[in-house]
Amino acid sequence: MPTWRGIIEEYREFLPVTDKTPIVTFGEGNTPLIFAKNLSKETECEVYLKFEGANPTGSFKDRGMCMAITKTVEKGFKAVICASTGNTSASAAAYAARAGLDCIVIIPKGKIALGKLSQAIMHGAKVFEVDGNFDQALELVVKMGEKYPIDIVNSINPFRIEGQKTGAFEIVNQLNGRVPDYHFIPVGNAGNITAYWKGYKEYKDKGKIKSLPKMMGFQAAGSAPIVLGHPIEKPETIATAIRIGNPASWKQAEAARDESCGTIDMVTDDEILESYRYLPSKEGIFCEPASAASVAGLKKTFKAGKLKKGSLVICILTGHGLKDPDCAINQGAKTYKVPCKVEAIVKELGY
Ligand code: AN7
Predict the structure, then answer these.
(1) Is the distance from CB of 294 to CB of 317 less than 8 angstroms?
(2) What was the pLDDT predicted at 254?
(3) Helix 87-99 and helix 61-75, axial crossing angle in degrees, nearest 10
(4) What is the pTM of this model?
(5) Residues with CB under 6 A from ligand 1
(6) Burial of 107 (0-12, 13-18, 19+ CB in 10 A)
(7) For 191-196, what is the mean pLDDT?
């Protein structure tokens, strides 16, 4: 038996399972909580990065998908469906393949990072690219779910939130019971901020912690419905994962913000890209553009003088940098094309 048994076995008492529940797992969770030396110095805080890109399919979605697909099997469905900006589809396709379920994926045409699309395809999902954005794709999925015996595994499925809340338990455990003062997180469809807040509150209710973090959600400026207070009909951002104009968990995200005395704010694509380049080059951690929104949010909050010095800070890095190789290559870093000769290399190095 592996020492880490996946989120359901590890947090069984907090999850809706019985001894008979047929668990579908890849051993997800237990992702690294990494001290960020340079970022800590820069922001005068103690900053840790929760690297959710280290999950089996490369994003935080595996926590929720483990729980959702486990319940799909328990309920007796033979097929699942999701709308996705990419990561949900990659995770759904993988867990469905493992459980022997059909997987139907609806994605906005041309707006999915290549790594994610290749995962959904290789895991055998039926992938439909539609003329429309994520919000329209999700509406279509809801209609399909109402009409056919297909289980919806978007975060409107409450089991997704249940699985994802385990991230909060893990952070507290990895900090030996300390509670972050601030929890920075990207916000798209707003399921993850909802889930983390639920997790922290449940740990407090169980007496495992005494305080709660401020929830600091960040949307991309071109896709910031919660910040602006109205749905965005044509959301745009380089961070395609959070290119969402009408989040399903809008109200829950506002509740997390208000109950925790936190904020939901936005960062520009330029700010996102600055952190996207900063993390791999200065901290050695490569995340996808949407994930960098949490760190961009931290930097913005620090610069605005709104961060209490010496605070314990968590930034969630939701997905791996390898998910979106195009965005990385487009950052303009050059390679050196040289003859295969020592002298040619040395010349470029200036030795
Ligand atoms: C890397 O895959 O919505 O606020 O369909 O992939 O819980 O939606 C992805 C969302 C942040 C936002 N970071 O989380 C999908 C999808 C990454 C993501 C988010 C997503 P939510």
Answers:
(1) yes
(2) 98
(3) 40
(4) 0.98
(5) 59, 84-88, 155, 186-192, 241-242, 288, 290-291, 318-319
(6) buried
(7) 98
